[in-house]
Amino acid sequence: MKSDFDNWSDIRVFLAVMRTGSTLAASSELGIAQPTVARRIDALEHVLGLVLFERDTRGFRPTQNAHLLRDEAERMESAALSFAEKASTLRRPRPIRITAFAANLSGRSTDIFNDFSARHPEIEFEFLPGARVFDLMAGEADIALRLAWTQPDPELVCRKVSTAQFTMFCAASYAERHGFPASPQELKDHKILALRHDAITPRIYKWLRQQVPEERIYQKFSEASLRDAAVRTGQGVGLMNVRMAESDVKNGTLIRCFDPPEALNVPHLILISPDAYRRREVRTFVKFFAPRYAAIYK
Amino acid sequence: MKSDFDNWSDIRVFLAVMRTGSTLAASSELGIAQPTVARRIDALEHVLGLVLFERDTRGFRPTQNAHLLRDEAERMESAALSFAEKASTLRRPRPIRITAFAANLSGRSTDIFNDFSARHPEIEFEFLPGARVFDLMAGEADIALRLAWTQPDPELVCRKVSTAQFTMFCAASYAERHGFPASPQELKDHKILALRHDAITPRIYKWLRQQVPEERIYQKFSEASLRDAAVRTGQGVGLMNVRMAESDVKNGTLIRCFDPPEALNVPHLILISPDAYRRREVRTFVKFFAPRYAAIYK
DNA sequence: AAATCGCTCTTCATTTTTGTAGAACAGCAC
DNA sequence: GTGCTGTTCTACAAAAATGAAGAGCGATTT
Questions:
Q1: Which residues of A touch B80 (CB under 8 A)?
Q2: Can you give the CATH number for the domain in which A77 is found?
């Protein structure tokens, strides 16, 4: 037998009458009309099957039943207040959490953040740099700047920045000593520096194995930046993001071995969790950031 | 700034949609129409200023905000359930608590209780015998059988049983040794046994002092039954309820000194707290008990 | 490829709830 | 006493919420 007590709002009315001692006073406290208050109390008494107030011309006086229910009613009120409080917290602006490779959050990107912060000083950021893939759908971060090796969740809001290209690079010093592979076929004669098993993308690993026997691949780097440093110091050849290597190629530190193979192209995306995208400040930020960020990557 | 969140019932709807994942399923769980569920959610989102669900053709999927509010909503639900539970406890029959002098709950009265219990075995009693005056308005007891020395609260439901009469009695053995006071005027030559200062009724004390100098009044009894026992064993003369002494007079143990003075008459009442009188079983009991109890006192 | 299922939305008539206005009444101050 | 204040009712009109029916839409099954 289910209880018929389904109009929880009547508890508010009950408490107001309890506290003020009259339906008239309660009505002005609640901002509703006096007859409505009286009717809500009638209805409540009816569903509970209890008399809660003694009516007479000088007010509503609580019966013992009413006194005994007061505690429970107040527990309900405080639950309602903390619900509203929590909602109000969620409504307040929170920092925008952005995850990306450290490289994408430094250099020219920082100028974009600075420009944005100058315009919107009230909007704060939280940066989560690193290779770890945060789960945007689970709310671990709001925005991700990522190379989309795997198909992103279709729910995510998605902006394409560029197509990232990868190819082999080696230091000028390395080339002097060992020459350099001018095509994928020649890779097998070189020492290949690569990310560790647990950090390397399956797609890249597969491509590498098609060109080179396993024993030539040195998988000891946990982060791309460590591998890149090793390449720059001439310890071997390594697959690098063309954009990341660009300035080193220009100043002669690095040599680009051959044109980026199509198979290694990957979209560079801005991903936004739909929950975050619902926040005004996040949309404002994305609108500002996306074109400028894309411009960096031509 | 007061929150606009005033329709607490919307939390029920919120939880139902949260649990079932669709407004249609929630509507059948709640026993209301599907469009109503959707409208309640819209309204809730609007007053909270938060998006709670992602709508599409296959249902309502909770956003992160909804997930974060779920705990608070459930706290509210459990408060509502315990409110309903408490109400249901109050609705259940409880024992009828009766307070009276022990003498009024024994003897012929017990027959009335037995007869009533035979007819209504489901109705239980709790007896609170003794001189202590329980506060019926505060809910300390439901029914009192009392001599109304003081004006009872006008809110109390009240039935008159009889006019109790008091006068002086002494044991036959006492009369043999000292004679007995045949009028109030003669009392000053006797030893008067009376209740202690903290137990005696002001009205009686005043009357006694009008007849007798203070030093003749022995106020050492905390209970009427102790004083009566002392009178019966011939230790002095004492004011007793005429009805209580009746059988002892008939069998010659006690002597009624003189006719009961009008000034000591006091109404004997059945008093019922208005809260208790609202309970059906209490009314049933009073209807049965009152005439039979009054019959005992002629 | 078509049919079905389980949803959401929209519309509109109906029902329910609410508010307004005023009568009646007790307590209190003058 | 008389008038004032604070209260509860009642009646009726206005406003709001609700439900029923049906269109539309994906996903899934046949």
A1: 5, 8, 11, 76
A2: 1.10.10.10
Q: Is B145 among the domain residues?
A: yes
Q: Give the nucleotide with minimal C1' distance to the Cα of B31.
A: D19
Is A85 in the same domain as A121? no
Q: Name the protein residue, with chain letter, whose CA is nearest the C1' of D6.
A: A58
- Top residue of A64, A78, A94, A279 to mutate, by most chain B CBs within 10 Å, is A64
User: Would you state the torsion angle of the CA atoms of residues A146, A148, A151, A157, taken in this order, to the nearest 10 degrees?
Assistant: 40
CA distance A200 to A203: 9
The C-alpha atoms of residue A203 and residue A194 are separated, in whole angstroms, by: 13
pTM (2 decimals)? 0.79
Give residue ranges of B with CB < 8 Å to any A CB: 3, 5-9, 11-12, 48-51, 54, 63-65, 68-69, 72-73, 75-76, 79-80, 82-84, 86-88, 90-91, 139, 273-275, 278
Question: Does A241 lie in the same domain as A102?
Answer: no
CA–C1' B35–C13 (A): 15
Domain end call among A36, A56, A91 = A91
Q: Which residues of A touch B86 (CB under 8 A)?
A: 68-69, 72
Q: Are strands B96-100 and B125-129 parallel, antiparallel or unpaired?
A: parallel
- Judge: A12–B11 Cβ closer than 8 Å, yes or no: no
Q: Is residue A230 assigned to a domain?
A: yes
Cα(B7)–Cα(B48) distance, integer angstroms: 11
Select from A3, A83, A86 the Cβ nearest to the Cβ of B84: A3
Residue B136: which CATH number? Answer: 3.40.190.10
Angle at A63 between CA A61 and CA A67, to 5 degrees: 105
Rounded CA–C1' distance between A83 and C20, in angstroms: 34
pLDDT digits (tens), chain A, 298 positions: 567 899 999 999 999 999 999 999 999 999 999 999 999 999 999 999 999 999 999 999 999 999 999 999 999 999 999 999 999 999 998 999 999 988 888 888 999 999 999 999 999 999 998 878 888 988 899 999 988 888 777 788 889 999 999 999 999 999 999 989 999 898 888 999 998 888 788 888 888 888 898 888 888 888 888 898 899 998 999 999 888 888 889 998 999 999 999 999 999 999 999 899 989 899 999 999 999 999 988 7
Q: State whether B156 and B234 are in the same domain.
A: no
What domain count does chain B have? 3
The first and second tokens of residue B138, run together, are: 């505060």
Domain around B244: 166-264
Which among A69, A82, A278 has the least Cβ separation from residue B83? A69
Judge if B155 and B185 occupy the same domain. no
B105 & B37 share domain? no
Query: Both A281 and A149 in a single domain?
Result: yes
* Domain co-membership, B111 together with B29: no
Whose CA is closest to A112, among A93, A131, A125, A128? A125
Give the list of residues 6+ apart from residue A178 with CB closer than 8 angstroms, or none: A190
CA A289 to CA A108: how far, in whole Å? 12
Q: Tell me: do A106 and A45 sit in the same domain.
A: no
Tell whether B206 is covered by a domain: yes
